[in-house]
């Protein structure tokens, strides 16, 4: 089913937090608001990583290593079913040196303590 | 929630069809049993592709181009919620020349005419 506008806005706020806090402020505590505690990420070029502590380690290392300066997430589709949302979207990464990188993603959202968060997060590049 | 054993077996049959029919027999009609008609795939190195006819074109071109000889899909987690299943798994691609390539994937399954099929399919490589 399609999503109520309030839920759509809530998701957008969480998505923006990754850029505004995690990337721009290197505030990795903000990941607690973004990922469920037993979330999984499936990054290109690395094995699956499970658990928020391990995910935090990944981003703490990957964001500076890749020179990520910003990430604009654009939701293209979100499908609510029971207590799950499956979202498809596009990410525009800004890298230092001025390059950009287009990625696309699928995120499975679940609620943790009444808050919607990323439970499974997979992405890859367009080129 | 966890999946009934019958549903798990049903999913495994569909997953195996990709290897046994699409790859090994180049039977691209079998994709009708695997993907919903408005399915989306998000392949690494290419933009999102929507619709079974376009997905068929992609695989008809990509399988010979990449020299794919086999694909063993191993389901690692499947989460049923309402009429959706979110599956996480690993794929072991056999390429001609004897190389292998490890990929991981997330598939969002939905029912079409009472049959469970891949509705969203995204993957990337481990290395």
Helical/strand content category of chain A: alpha+beta
Q: What is the CATH topology of chain A?
A: Nuclear Transport Factor 2, Chain: A
- List the quaternary state of the chains: homodimer
Highest-level CATH class of chain A = Alpha Beta
- Cα radius of gyration of chain A in angstroms: 14 Å
Number of helices of chain A: 3
Largest beta sheet: strand ordering of chain A: 2-1-6-5-4-3
How many angstroms separate the termini of chain A? Answer: 32 Å
Fraction in beta strands of chain A: over 45%
- How would you describe the shape of chain A? globular
H-E order of chain A: HHEEHEEEE
Q: Which stretches of chain A of 5+ consecutive residues score pLDDT under 50?
A: none
Largest sheet of chain A, in brief, is: 6 strands, mixed
Residue share in helices of chain A? 25-40%
Domain count of chain A: 1
Describe the structure.
The structure is a homodimer of 127-residue chains. The first copy, chain A, is an alpha+beta fold and 127 residues long. Chain A has one domain (5-125): Nuclear Transport Factor 2, Chain: A. Chain A is built from 3 helices and 6 strands, in the order H-H-E-E-H-E-E-E-E. A 6-stranded mixed β-sheet of chain A has the order 2-1-6-5-4-3. Chain A starts with a helix and ends with a strand. The mean pLDDT of chain A is 96. The A-B interface holds A 40, 42-48, 76-77, 79, 81-84, 86, 88, 104-106, 108, 120, 122-127 and B 40, 42-48, 76-77, 79, 81-84, 86, 88, 104-106, 108, 120, 122-127.
Topology diagram in text:
The structure is a homodimer of 127-residue chains.
Chain A: H1 5-23, H2 31-34, E1 35-42, E2 49-50, H3 52-66, E3 68-81, E4 84-95, E5 100-112, E6 115-125
Parallel strand pairs in A: 1-6
Antiparallel strand pairs in A: 1-2, 3-4, 4-5, 5-6
């Amino acid at each position: 089913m399609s999503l109520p506008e309030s839920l759509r806005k809530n998701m957008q706020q969480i998505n923006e937090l990754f850029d505004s806090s995690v990337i721009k402020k290197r505030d990795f505590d903000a990941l607690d608001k973004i990922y469920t505690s037993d979330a999984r990420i499936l990054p290109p070029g690395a094995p699956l990583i499970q658990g928020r502590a391990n995910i935090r380690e990944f981003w703490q290392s990957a964001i500076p290593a890749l020179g990520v300066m910003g990430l604009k997430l654009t939701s293209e589709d979100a499908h609510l079913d029971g207590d799950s949302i499956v979202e498809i979207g596009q990410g525009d990464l800004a890298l230092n040196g001025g390059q950009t990188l287009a990625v696309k993603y699928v995120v499975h959202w679940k609620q943790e303590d009444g808050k919607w968060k990323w439970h499974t997060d997979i992405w890859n590049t367009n080129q």
